[in-house]
Design goal:
Distance between the termini: 40 Å
Number of strands: 20
Structural class: alpha/beta
CATH architecture of the largest domain: Alpha-Beta Barrel
Shape: globular
Bound molecules: zinc ion
Number of domains: 2
Order of helices and strands: EEEEEEEEEEEHEHEHEHEEHEEEHEH
Helix content: 10-25%
CATH topology of the largest domain: TIM Barrel
Number of helices: 7
Radius of gyration: 24 Å
Length: 368
């Protein structure tokens, strides 16, 4: 009688992995892991983050940097080899930190981490406060559980330019064009005196984004005032510069949960002024950025871009005003020569793509 369905296993020549019926074709011996149905000796870790001590490791307090693999790290914890308890670390200022109970220098520990897509990784055992750059145990990680998101395959950088200053049109735009770089301009419409050029730039693939109508701190306004700032800046830019306007940055980085809730109906992302790389799994309404100021050096910014490529993260840079003079007169002004040098390394750093905010958000957004 053929009135019952029986799952036919589909292992074929596969020695390991799913049999297609909820079971397994086999499991691999230690020292090897499953790749495309075959047990391969010399494991390839499903997630291979970069692990390093932060700048302030100490006897009762430890800080680790854990990043990379294109995905945001969600949890990090410390295992003391030979003990059953583990100590969770918490995240802040770009590193994972916490107290590990009275641990002697040189004690053997293992660091564990989980990323935003559910993958786990752990280090080979290493000596507490002695081995500064532990390595991933290639055979002990687990693959991601999310099917809706992909880690970044390459790093990304975005040039964001705020406040619509005149020097953006006269100094920055010719350099952007000569390097073939598309930027995201966070405009304050009443400050914008070069609307026609802004419209042309939008047609060329640059992004016009909103930055309120008056540049007041949104946390100091009433809810109806906040709504006006968001709605009217979007409407004005859509009518006069480009359509659609999807990205927003809050003036002076002043925001809170209520401001983010007000932003969401109008915009698909929000850039803050908080430093840090963005990854798959990062909150697109709290994008981190690095300000480029008069005291910034091209070498320093280029190192930030190289880090983004190495960790497969998304570096957002924020600029304001520009000058062709040899020195910048104010904090928020960058010389043309420094901007030119940063554009050169952005387009020449291996493993790094230049994207607009809209494109970057599409790349890191996780959803069904
Ligand atoms: Zn601004």
């Amino acid at each position: 009688m053929a009135d019952r369905c029986v799952c036919a296993t589909r292992c074929g020549s596969n020695l390991c992995g799913s049999d297609g019926c909820g079971g397994s074709c086999g499991t691999c011996a230690s020292g090897s892991n499953c790749q495309a149905g075959q047990c391969v000796a010399g494991c390839v870790p499903p997630w291979d983050p970069t692990w390093a001590y932060g700048p302030y490791p100490g006897d009762w307090w430890v800080e680790f940097k854990v990043a990379g693999g294109g995905v945001l790290t969600r949890a990090v914890w410390v295992e003391i080899v030979g003990r059953s308890t583990t100590s969770p670390l918490s995240y802040g200022f770009g590193r994972w930190a916490g107290g590990v109970p009275t641990l002697a220098r040189g004690t053997s520990i293992i660091l564990h981490a989980r990323d935003a897509l559910g993958a786990t990784a752990q280090t080979l055992p290493f000596r507490y406060l002695v081995d500064l750059s532990p390595r991933t145990d290639p055979c002990r990680g687990t693959a991601r559980t999310s099917t809706s998101c992909q880690p970044l395959a390459r790093g990304m950088v975005t040039f964001t330019i705020d406040d619509s200053g005149r020097s953006q049109a006269t100094v920055a735009v010719p350099l952007l064009r000569s390097h073939g770089v598309k930027a995201t301009f966070y405009h304050v419409p009443p400050y914008l005196t070069w609307t026609s050029l802004a419209r042309t730039l939008a047609l060329e693939g640059h992004e016009a984004a909103a930055h309120t109508m008056t540049h007041r701190s949104l946390t100091s306004l009433t809810p109806p005032e906040v709504d006006d700032e968001l709605r009217l800046s979007k409407q004005s830019l859509e009518a006069n510069v480009s359509s659609p306007v999807e990205s927003f940055a809050s003036p002076s980085g002043a925001y809170n949960a209520a401001v983010i809730a007000a932003i969401k109906p109008y915009f698909r992302s929000h850039r803050t002024t908080v430093p840090g790389l963005n990854f798959v799994g990062s909150d697109v309404y709290e994008l981190g950025t690095e300000f480029v100021l008069s005291r910034s050096t091209a070498a320093g910014v280029c190192a930030q871009l190289a880090e983004a490529a190495a960790l497969r993260g998304w570096r957002v840079l924020t600029f304001h005003d520009f000058t062709t003079a040899s020195t910048a007169p104010q904090d928020f002004t960058v010389t043309a020569s420094v901007f030119d040098a940063i554009l050169t390394c952005a387009t020449n750093t291996p493993g790094l793509d230049v994207v607009t905010i809209r494109q970057g958000v599409a790349a890191i957004r996780c959803g069904p």
